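[job 4471] stage=fold_predict status=RUNNING
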Amino acid sequence: MKALNVLKYVGFGILGLGFIIGVIFGVQALWNWLIPELFNGPVLTYWQTAGLFLLSKILLTGVAPGGSGEKHKDKKDWRRKYHEKCRSFSDEAKNVAAPEEI
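[job 4471] inference complete, writing structure tokens
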């Protein structure tokens, strides 16, 4: 039974690694197809593309582990408090006209 679990994790690891390699090749193909022709940019090698992909991942998503922890909880709390506050307004306060421009 344990051997089956180990093989399952090894298989998922191989599939994940294959997926990452495929994505890097896809990004490289798109870059080398579009950027040099449109913007006279450089043609990238596989390792340059892998570095660019890693850099974009770091800049766009961060490097902190996890992803659905306190950050999302804080957003939900803020949203819940905002909606409660909006519901507490009376109908009269909601319909108040904006001040006239001078």
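[job 4471] summary: The radius of gyration is 25 Å.
[job 4471] exit 0
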